[in-house]
Amino acid sequence: MIRPPEPRPHGLRLAGYGRRLTARLIDLALLLALNVVVNGWFVWRWAQEWAPYWQELFRRAARGDTSAEGLPLPGEQAGSLLVVILLIATALWLAFEVPAMAAGGQTVGKRVMRIRAVPMAADQPLGFGRALSRWSTLGLPTLLWYCAGIGLVLQFVDALSPLWDHPLRQALHDKRAQTVVVEVPYRPASAPSNDRDQPPGDTP
């Protein structure tokens, strides 16, 4: 059976999953660094609220005690702190990704991996509305990490979805925003002109 040729939106090659995954990991590493700076104090306070619970659990495990009765509960602020942490993390992700995608279809990771997102209709900037729609499908479920990790499951499925989408390799957030991710053609720097080496007059 002859496979049909791979689509080339706007004459550009579709980005492979390896490049897309690497670009996303680069962006997540940068976002983690931002969260350490902005969100670090809240995460530390949340960990302190849970510390007595985990310390007692480990003490019992060391004694071979598997009982969960009488374990100290986390402090009253633990739930509120988690909500604040997730709100800040989501806001940082939005500020990091949406303006950059709106202007040029590239985050830092996508620039490094030489890929970009473009609308299916035309090779042009996404614009703020389309960039926000694209991000929200993947980014907003962060707020649902509070609900037994449901948001993380949704994001995991979205991140894997290009693997089974054919022929355009669109993730769920691409489908919502009607975008595709393509490779950025390599354009070598133009060779310097040698006009200055030529003597005046007609060129032989």
Task: Tell me the helix content.
Answer: 40-55%
Trace the largest sheet across and list its strands: 1-2
* Computed CA radius of gyration, to the nearest angstrom: 25 Å
Compute the number of helices.
6
Q: How many domains would you count in the coordinates?
A: 1
Task: Estimate what percentage of residues fall within beta strands.
Answer: under 5%
Main sheet, how many strands, which sense, barrel?
2 strands, antiparallel
The chain-level structural class is mainly alpha
Structure description:
This protein is mainly alpha-helical. The chain has one domain. 53% of the residues lie in helices and 5% in strands. It contains six helices and two strands. A two-stranded antiparallel ribbon has the order 1-2. α1 (17-62) packs antiparallel against α2 and α2 (78-104) packs antiparallel against α4 (127-139). The longest helix is centred in the first third of the chain and has 46 residues, at 17-62. The radius of gyration is 25 Å and the shape is elongated. The termini are far apart. It comes from Micromonospora jinlongensis. This is Putative RDD family membrane protein YckC. InterPro entries: Pra-immunoreactive (IPR051791), RDD (IPR010432).
Short description:
With 204 residues, the chain is mainly alpha-helical.
